[in-house]
Amino acid sequence: MRMSDLVAQTILEMLDSHNGNAEIQRNELATTLGCVPSQINYVITSRFTPEQGYIVESRRGGGGYIRITRVQADEKALLMHIVNSIGDSLDKASAEVMLNNLYRQSILDRRIASLMAIALSDRALRSAPQSIRDNLRADIMKNMLITLE
User: Fold this and answer.
1) 34: number of Cβ within 10 Å
2) What's the pTM?
3) Alpha carbon 43 to chain centroid distance?
4) Which end of the chain has less Cβ packing within 10 Å, N or C?
5) What is the separation, in whole angstroms, between the first and last Cα of the chain?
């Protein structure tokens, strides 16, 4: 497992065990996981964004912390929020994170999430020129999410 995946998994477990709220001491978590603090920052900024259903607050300084809260919204509102946040382009990694979050929040079951991931994969889009794959992926993802409503 890659370090960024391990950090994300640890944070998700913290969120799950504390009703969708986690308060993290960045340096402490980095020491526990054996990584550098900037790795924690990277994971938080790339995988725990408002578009993916999280609110992140931080307080700097000696007693500083990073607080992550999973947004609790009804299924339709969350799906529309994600559709609106996708924009014109969606890379494969971001699509996978979104699908994982939807699965973890029980909006998608494992089978549907897997099928969507396959449809959004580079392999499925291989006949399209590389320059437009992320645009196609965004359109496909939005259309699939809209049909889930």
Assistant:
1) 9
2) 0.62
3) 9
4) N
5) 34
